[in-house]
Amino acid sequence: MELSDIRREYIKGGLRRKDLLSNPIEQFNLWLQQAIDAGLTDPTAMTVATVDENGQPFQRIVLLKNVEKDGFVFYTNLGSRKAQHIEHNNKVSLHFPWHPLERQVHITGTAEKLSTFENIKYFTSRPKESQIAAMASRQSSRISARGVLEGKYLELKKKFEQGEIPVPSFWGGYRVKVESIEFWQGGEHRLHDRFLFTQQDQQWSTERLAP
Fold first, then answer.
1. Would you indicate the residue range of the signal peptide (predicted)?
2. Which of 112, 95, 113 is nearest to 104 (CA)?
């Protein structure tokens, strides 16, 4: 089969302006809950796009950990490639692909580091194995073999078998402060519905976009 022959019809129903909540954060939370209720795999998984100092875009999947009135929160290694990009250019893009519901949400904004208190609060809430893994992995650094990573993990697991694990100085989170949110709902005959929320002077404006 040719790739150009792969297609399907979108039949879940459209999206009308009257169906939208006036606040896009509330609308996102509604769609996220519906994705969770539908049993989607990894409903909090999102693509985080950043740009390096040469203008080269990069994307990766990260898990959303909190939604607030002024931003979307995720955590990472502060020495990772994405963190280095954000240090150079903190404008980022987030994308949630909820394919079974024929929905997408696209967010643009600026990433800001979380406070030490916020980092500690979340880190200590994680399973101990995840805490150790965060400490063992210098994300994005080159390693010679998987065994090196596994050896470091086992070494730290033994070291902290009885005690608490300190929050690594190279680990933390970001809050993406929203500038725009687009809601996409698949429609029949490729007549998809798209609504773009943009924020100006702490007020949201809404526009329908052509598919």
1. none
2. 95
Mean pLDDT of 63-75: 96
User: Binding site for substrate: which residues?
Assistant: 7-10, 65, 122, 126, 130, 190-192
Structural domain boundaries, residue 39: 8-124+174-208
**Coil, strand or helix at 20:** coil
> What is the model's pLDDT at position 176?
98
The pLDDT value given to residue 7:
76
84 found inside a domain: yes
Radius of gyration from C-alpha coordinates of the chain: 20
SS3 assignment, position 95: strand
Q: Would you say 188 and 199 are in contact if contact means Cβ atoms under 8 Å apart?
A: no
Residue numbers annotated as active site: 190
Let me know if residue 20 belongs to a domain.
Answer: yes
Binding residues: 7-10, 60-65, 75-76, 81-82, 104, 122, 126, 130, 139-140, 184, 190-192, 194
Residue 198 in any domain: the answer is: yes
The CATH number that applies at residue 84 is 2.30.110.10
Binding residues for FMN: 60-65, 75-76, 81-82, 104, 139-140, 184, 194
